Prior knowledge:
Elements lengths: L5 E6 L6 H9 L4 E5 L8 H8 L10 E6 L3 H14 L9 E4 L4 H13 L8 E5 L4 H12 L3 E6 L2 H14 L4 E6 L5 H6 L4 E4 L10 H4 L7 E4 L16 E5 L2 E4 L1 H19 L6 E2 L1 H10 L1
Parallel strand pairs: 1-2, 1-3, 3-4, 4-12, 5-6, 5-8, 6-7, 8-9, 9-11
Antiparallel strand pairs: 10-11
Amino acid sequence: MDKPTILVQLDTDSLPSVFDRVVAVDAGAAHVFAYGGVSPENVRELVHGCIFTRGLKDLHRTAIFIGGSDVATGEKVLAAVREYLLPQYGLRVSVMLDPNGANTTAAAAVRAAARHLNLAHTPALVLGGTGPVGQRVARLLARQGAEVRIGSRQRERAEAVCLVLREQVPDARVEAVATASSSDAPAALAGRVLVIAAGAAGVVLLPKKVRATCATLQVAIDLNAVPPAGIEGVEAGDLAVKRDGVLCYGPLGVGGAKMKLHKTAVARLFERNDQILDAEEVYELAQAL
């Protein structure tokens, strides 16, 4: 008889995310063991508890999900988890990284853009490009060959993200742009075919009058679900709705695909015990949906 599936939720926040736990149950995890305050320094025993308790033939029925609001810490926890797995002995479980929903949200947004554009030939602007979701959006776009401008109120922060992306994607075509003032926005948007807004909640990143100045814009995706809209004029429920000649997606329009992707990814963890699902692997799943 098969043993029940167990998802071990490692959250870098003090209180494990209820959202991630509910989605895990809806995705088919029979049990979710949720731990808060997880760090690279205290994760070893949690990992070893996953790999030493079931026989090799049942390890695929245990998996690890790394969440929390701090993406950088989540990445460090993932590195530590991988260090403490013992694949040389077959002692490993599948692992998914999705802190702050960054990977699943970014993958759903980029997949939406790919429905309408050949990303390998797309000049793109990512507003809020230094935040957790924005960095993942820029990374996935760069992987697809897009020419990506990363917008931030502080150009130095955008430059730092560009440096990281060039390390992660050696042939990345990325450029930092400042978006601190209304005079910066037209230059940042000039010549762009795609814009994705992934900034802080409740902040208008792209006013409608500025968007109207860009004759090349074809697709606009706003990921901000808290009013006002990040891209003014885009409605929360927009799903490939044409507004002023531009195909628009709102946060709820992208959110349906994000939720489906999140559940699909969690379910996929229990198919094998050798998977690491980071941004690129989650995007591959998004393409298959």
